[in-house]
Amino acid sequence: MPTEVHKLAHTFAVANDVPACKSWAEKEMAATPVNIQAGFQASGIYPFNEEVFDDSDFAPSYVIARCLPDPSC
């Protein structure tokens, strides 16, 4: 499995002309504890914030929120 992932990543990098060492270095610089904690904080996961989203954030899902038809009819 790791070999397949490595081959896929290499194929993607070659096809998109991404220097492997540059993309790896950028990823290493981005994955800092501060950035990781900021991601959890922005999403309201930690510290827990139940008010991070309001009702308007869920409005698109109301389009398909309807009762299922009664199968006994």
UniProtKB/TrEMBL annotation:
This is Uncharacterized protein. It comes from Synaphobranchus kaupii (Kaup's arrowtooth eel).
